[in-house]
């Protein structure tokens, strides 16, 4: 029996879809069986980021309306074995789907796949509730800015009310240079407020946009900082104990530089 | 009377003698004598720090005070700390306004000696209300989170959101937090918005309605 993990944030545009595509691909690259679900009905883009747009024939709406079998609606990834995508319908709206229907799909998928990742839409409305309905665990994506953190906190509260325990955090788009200059909310500030376990830090990486545009998830681009971060995150999800490398913020020398530059 | 001239406080790093430097040296020494006389434990041999608020005593008087404490009371003066006026302002609260009326029902069965215990962090968008008594929170109150209580509010964590104590109008209610960096505090109908960008102080603080009808925030030592 597999595990359903919802990837969510509250605030829009912080990297949920990017993270779903990359973690899904990374898990498949290390030999796991994975299904990723686009729960952003009406605005689908997980298939685009995965470069699978042209292969989508059926969506989760077709499965729910019994126009096709679940197995038939799954699109096989072009590059990695054992990675499947269930796309979202663009013609429908988020409240055309009910939480129980999403939950049913998740439950059926986790019988076949070790990991089922659900890409949640932004917001705290129906779309979010649908995405979280079948989740055993959650990954919260936040960027180091006040409003994203506030929304993440809100979402954590909602997930806890729903009885979800395993809630982990990915801090996305941390910029080493800005942190070093003391111009960015640090990892510790974020963890202090949200008070959940840190799954990983993904640095600001220009490669993300390039890979999105090419429809090739970043993790295929070995050696880039973002790719390495997502590979480590995937390994941690599988239970491997891989330390989170410190960004320079906690480095002794940069702290000294910080003190001096602040004084002036 | 003397409490406004000298105060003795225990901080994490030991005893501090807080001195109001606007008073003459002889009055300060008299106040110190009264203060020590009232104490039921001998203070001889103890290390202390002297805290002075700017504009401070002149160096001579300051030195004199140090010698006085060492020689008369046999104290060990570890350091003399001088605080800028600006650093002091956030401790004393911003003036409160009378604007907010409580829409809360009066005359319920309120028992201020009874507290509801909340064993979780109050996150953004969440509200905890206890209109029958006081509230103790084993966790934080995050920005966007809210606690409302007919009585006192005690946060055994960081209070970063909004807290409204004495929501039915009980002005003697207090708000205590291990870290008090709230967005807003209310006690009864009084409101206090601390200056933005306030840093954590690293010690517990208490907020209460003071004599001049403002919410005062100070270090929490004891009730
Ligand atoms: N680590 C990163 N470095 C640089 N750019 C990034 C990073 N993560 C995400 N981005 C960019 O941020 C934008 C939004 O990312 P993405 O679509 O994954 O967010 P989302 O949370 O799914 O958004 P929505 O709420 O609209 O669904 C994209 O243009 C993406 O390329
Ligand atoms: Mg998205």
Reported CATH architecture of chain A: 3-Layer(aba) Sandwich
Mean pLDDT of chain A: 91
Give unreliable regions of chain B as ranges: 86-107
Per the CATH scheme, the topology name of the largest domain in chain B is Pectate Lyase C-like
Kindly state the percentage of residues in helix of chain A: 40-55%
Number of strands of chain A: 8
Assembly status: heterodimer
Total number of helical segments of chain A? 12
Low-confidence sequence ranges of chain A: 249-258
CATH structural architecture of the largest domain in chain B:
3 Solenoid
Q: What is the succession of H and E elements of chain B?
A: EEHEHEHEEEEEEEEEEE
Largest sheet: number of strands, sense, barrel closure of chain A:
8 strands, mixed
Q: What is the fold-level CATH name, i.e. the topology of chain A?
A: Rossmann fold
Instruction: Note the beta-strand portion of chain A.
Output: 15-25%
Question: What is the topology, as strand order, of the major beta sheet of chain B?
Answer: 5-7-9-11-14-15
Give the overall shape of chain A. Answer: globular
Major interchain interface with per-chain residue totals? A-B, 12 and 13 residues
CATH uppermost class of chain A = Alpha Beta
Spatial separation of the terminal alpha carbons of chain B: 20 Å
């Amino acid at each position: 029996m597999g595990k359903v993990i919802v990837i969510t944030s509250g605030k829009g545009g912080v990297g949920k879809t990017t993270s779903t595509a990359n973690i899904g691909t990374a898990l498949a690259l290390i030999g796991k069986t994975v299904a990723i679900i686009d729960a952003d009905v009406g605005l689908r883009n997980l298939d685009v980021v995965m470069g699978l747009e042209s292969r989508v024939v059926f969506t989760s709406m077709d499965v729910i309306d019994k126009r096709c079998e679940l197995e038939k609606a799954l699109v096989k990834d072009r590059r990695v074995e054992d990675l499947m995508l269930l796309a979202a319908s663009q013609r429908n709206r988020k409240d055309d789907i009910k939480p129980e229907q999403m939950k049913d799909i998740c439950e059926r998928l986790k019988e076949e796949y070790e990991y089922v990742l659900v890409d949640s839409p932004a917001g705290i409305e129906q779309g979010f509730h649908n995405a979280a309905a079948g989740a055993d665990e959650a990954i919260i994506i936040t960027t180091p800015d006040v409003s994203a953190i506030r929304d993440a906190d809100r979402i954590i509260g909602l997930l806890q009310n729903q009885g979800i325990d395993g809630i982990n955090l990915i801090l996305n788009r941390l910029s080493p240079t800005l942190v070093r200059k003391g111009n960015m909310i640090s990892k510790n500030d974020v963890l202090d407020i949200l008070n959940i376990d840190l799954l990983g830090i993904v640095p600001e990486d220009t490669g993300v946009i390039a890979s999105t545009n090419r429809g090739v998830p970043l993790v295929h681009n070995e050696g880039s900082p973002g790719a390495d971060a997502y590979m480590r995150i995937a390994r941690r999800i599988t239970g491997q104990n891989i330390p989170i490398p410190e960004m320079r913020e906690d480095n002794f020398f940069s702290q000294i530089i910080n003190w001096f530059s602040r004084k002036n | 009377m003397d409490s406004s001239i000298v105060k003795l406080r225990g901080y994490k790093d030991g005893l501090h003698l807080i001195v109001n430097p606007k008073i003459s040296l002889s009055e300060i020494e008299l106040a110190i004598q009264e203060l020590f006389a009232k104490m039921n434990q001998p203070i001889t041999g103890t290390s202390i720090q002297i805290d002075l608020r700017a504009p401070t005593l002149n160096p001579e008087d300051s030195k004199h005070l140090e010698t006085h404490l060492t020689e008369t009371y046999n104290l060990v003066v570890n350091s003399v700390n001088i605080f800028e006026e600006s650093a002091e302002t956030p401790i004393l609260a911003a003036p409160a306004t009378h604007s907010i009326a409580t829409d809360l029902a009066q005359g319920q069965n309120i028992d201020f000696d009874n507290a509801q215990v909340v064993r979780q962090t109050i996150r953004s968008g969440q509200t905890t209300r206890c209109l029958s008594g006081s509230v103790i929170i084993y966790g934080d109150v995050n920005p966007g989170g809210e606690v409302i209580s007919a009585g006192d509010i005690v946060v055994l964590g960081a209070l970063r959101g909004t807290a409204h104590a004495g929501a039915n109008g009980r002005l003697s209610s207090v708000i205590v937090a291990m870290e008090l960096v709230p967005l807003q505090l209310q006690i009864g109908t009084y409101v206090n918005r601390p200056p933005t960008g306030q840093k954590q102080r690293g010690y517990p603080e208490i907020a209460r309605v003071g004599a001049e009808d403002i919410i005062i925030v100070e270090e929490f030592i004891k009730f």
